[in-house]
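Can't paste images in this forum, so I'm doing it all in text. The chain is below; anyone willing to post the predicted structure tokens underneath?
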Amino acid sequence: MSADRHAQEELAHIGRMIAELQRLATSGCGPQTRHAVMRPEYWQRRIDALMETSTDEPSRRDAALLRERLADVFTGAPERSTGSAWEPARETGGRK
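Text version of the structure:
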């Protein structure tokens, strides 16, 4: 499988996960950030990794659009500080 095809498949998966996060956010539950896959940083890192390795301009453009969608899902959500691996996440207030 080519790297660009892999990037497209990964972006499709990330897009589905962002859609699920959007669904949760609009259902009144809000994004649950207890699990790593529910945090925007997790998906941002995956998108960034794909953008760094892909030379395919459409893939890079799709990745940038996914980053925007992801940011929209978490706009206004309180930031969390995860601390050490064994410490629970703490609310730190709204984003500035």
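DSSP finds three helices and two strands in the chain. The longest helix spans residues 3-26.
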